[in-house]
Sequence to fold (494 residues):
Amino acid sequence: MAIAKVCGIETEYGIHSNNEHDNPVSLSSLLVNSYVADLERAGWDFENENPANDARGFSATNGQPPQIETHLVNAVLTNGARYYVDHAHPELSTPECANPLELVLYDKAGEEILRRSATSANKYLGTESTVTVIKNNSDGKGNSYGCHENYLMDREVPFSRIAKQVITHFITRIIMVGAGKVGSEITGDSHTVPFQVSQRGEFFEEEIGLETTLKRPIVNTRDEPHADPARFRRLHVIVGDANMSEVSTFLKVGTTALVLAMIEDNWLDNADMMFANPVHAMHQVSQDVELCTVLDLANGKTATALQLQWKIFELASNYAKQNGLPALGDEEVGKMLMERWESTLESLESDPMSLANQLDWVAKYRLLQAYIDRHGISWADPKLRAIDIQYHDINPEKSLYRRVGMERLLDDDDINKAVVMPPRDTRAFFRGMCLARFSKEIVSANWDSLVFDLKDGPLKRVPMMDPLKGTADHVDALIQNCRDAADLLNGLGA
Fold:
């Protein structure tokens, strides 16, 4: 049976200042520092990180561990998340989550952390500048930044099979989880391409590869499991948009986790759904607002993205009936996903605009079309780009996403709790609770270990090589009964 699809999301946020002299790297650093300055926290441990490891069995010769810039903060938070500056962007990586709905919760908690950061940063800047944080994927000038998903997988499943069988879903899921975008940054032609379903779709140039910023591949081969490498792999997914909609994020993560479980159980025989040219198909789907573009398949036949999604859903339904949905971490969440997936496809088939309160790209398209009709302008009008960006503003007072009546799956009280408390069903619980209780004795942390300094000997590294160990059931009682980190380490040893 497929292993549990522990999952996470890494989001690079766009950052903007009304002061043209402000540097985005400095602004990003200020933003993160503004949030973590008064927190008890540990720095990030880069031990054993190598982004050049390739799942196809080799390592890029020029690959190096990321260089640490001492003036930039790279912190681990008490909710188990990582918050740092990545080049010219603030980035937040959620803690490991045991099911797709929980990941939606921690993705939204990430937005709240960025919102609080911006509020603090703007108080520091005073009247000189105002920082705006945008949860989107492109700056409108041809630069794209990512929202990466991560899924725990069984190391025994050949990567070649994963790559071959997941690619159709990556391309066709766009019709449910795209964030929408005005125009094209590749062609620069708003007449030929007035609106796209995906923000990221047109930036992909290869079918499979290691890069994430140049010649982006649909299937990324980075092989950093952040866990026991003999047992696990972490599928690093870079094709997704940064979603504001809770429904879109739920569908993005949930359907992908289920498809990967099907691949692990050798259930997804999609030989009749392979594309003749996957990269071209992705660009076509991204531009297909009417959902009617006929795509060329490798077997000489054709199909639309919607028709292919229906085929994948039907396979998933049969899989769920025979195997259940334990790989999604929670059977009730799994049932919720299947119902939402089916109803979304039905609505896309009958009337896509009926999903304007659920899916990002539909909500944005309807908003923009209404503005065009009201003011008698064309899709080339620069005001539309401004509206596009404002949809993704995380400031609730300015965000257009907040004003269009989007359906919610979560409660704000739960989101606020998730800002400081870790998930209970993954190793993130151990990481987060240790940081909350023993931060002064923790030198550094990363996904698979904590490093303690007890002041009476060498540093002590506590490995966390299984993402499903270190949960509340495993360690909560121990942590609560320990006076200090020495007690904790003695208890773990016992």
User: Anything to note?
Assistant: The radius of gyration is 22 Å.
